[in-house]
Amino acid sequence: MSRLGIPLVVSALAVACGGAGAPRVVKVGEAERARASLQGRDAQTLAPQAFAEADQALRAAKEAERAGDEVAAELHAERAVAAYQHAVGIARLARATDEETQAKEALARAVEQAQRYATARKAAEREADDLEKQLKVAREAERPGAAGPADPQRERARLVAAQSLAVQARLLCSAARLVSAEAPGLAEAEAASADLEKKLDASPRPAPIDAAARARAACLTALTKARRTGAPDADQSDGLLGELSRSADPNATRTTDLTPTRDERGVVVTLRSLFSGAKAATLTTEAERTLGDLGRIAAAHPAFGVQVVLHDAAPPSAADVALGKKRGDAIAKALAGGGASAAKTKVEQAGARAPVFDPADAKRRDKNARVEIVFVGGS
């Protein structure tokens, strides 16, 4: 074969091969596989515009391939692959956004439901507390069985108990007046309590233990009704207890541990050794500061009235009664100096009729001398 014959043979083979079908552009096949893998998935429904652009690029790649323009086919195919991937990204973002929206809506519903449950729980707790108070009042008001005859020793014990109940009745009625002077039954309960204390001054026999129990129950009922006549504010006693548990002066030069307690009247702080001497009506410097702290707390909680109760270690003489009045005035003045409202502060003298230690115990009976600062709440 001559040298001129070789190129002719190669050309003929090339034409023959072209007639059998030109080889595919690799990128076009890759783009088709990318589209096939996305068939029926989120990219078509959540990113239709991006998916349509990718299909358009794939069609352009196929047209260029059929026209024999491999370069254009390659470029269009690469653009199609990138467009399909972009559609996938947009679809994922749309799906994530939708899931986030659903999660936020579910969270909002859960928070709203939790708030409803919390409100219902508080209402149930308040109702339970109210029922418990009503039950306690009902038990206190229940008429006791008539006291039968007693020996002299028991009769003396009944007299002491009647005196203590009478003082408690007066203090409960006093607390009720701080809450609401218009409480139903308050005037009658106060009158019965005053008559009872006058009778007890004469040491009657037999001791009016039954009348004393009824007087206390009547004053407790008046206090409960006084609280119901006011606005149904939230009970702030727990917050006040926490604040009183550790009170500090504004300059942080000292702290006072007050160890408050609670009884039917409200939150009680018990103080001792407030005065500079056994027969003095002058407050010590430390007592002035402590009462100033309590006055500031009273000013910060105007919903509470303040009851000041002075207790003696022994039955007071006429001179002791006059001294007690001066001491009560000094305490009220110190509280007012801290910010307590004078109109909502009431001083009561309990004498020695409500001891916390046995008066016969020589070692501890002096501790019966004390001052109670009672924050009387309206709920």
Kindly describe this structure:
There is one protein chain. The protein is α+β, with helices and mostly antiparallel strands. The chain folds into three domains: 1-139, no CATH class; 154-225; 236-379, OmpA-like domain (60s Ribosomal Protein L30, Chain: A, 2-Layer Sandwich). Helices cover 62% and strands 9% of the residues. It contains eleven helices and seven strands. It has helices at 5-20, 26-37, 42-46, 48-66, 70-141, 152-179, 186-201, 209-229, 237-245, 285-300, 318-338; strands at 247-248, 255-256, 261-262, 266-271, 305-311, 345-351, 370-376. The strands form two sheets. A five-stranded mixed β-sheet has the order 3-4-7-5-6, sandwiched between helices. Helix 11 links the parallel strand 5 (305-311) and strand 6 (345-351). The relative contact order is 0.08.
How many domains in all?
3
Rg computed from alpha carbons, rounded to a whole number of angstroms: 45 Å
Strand/helix succession: HHHHHHHHHEEEEHEHEE
CATH level-1 class of the largest domain: Alpha Beta
Class by SSE composition: alpha+beta
Q: How large a portion of the residues is in β-strands, by DSSP E?
A: 5-15%
Query: Can you summarize the main beta sheet?
Result: 5 strands, mixed
Which stretches of 5+ consecutive residues score pLDDT under 50? 1-21, 248-255
What is the global morphology?
Answer: rod-shaped
CATH topology call of the largest domain: 60s Ribosomal Protein L30, Chain: A
CATH architecture of the largest domain: 2-Layer Sandwich
Return the average pLDDT rounded to an integer: 84
Total beta-strand segments: 7
The rounded distance between the terminal residues' Cα atoms is 122 Å
Oligomerization: single chain
Instruction: Write the CATH homologous superfamily of the largest domain.
Output: OmpA-like domain
- What fraction, in percent, of the residue positions are helical? 55-70%
Helix count, DSSP H or I runs of 4 or more residues: 11
Strand order of the largest sheet: 3-4-7-5-6
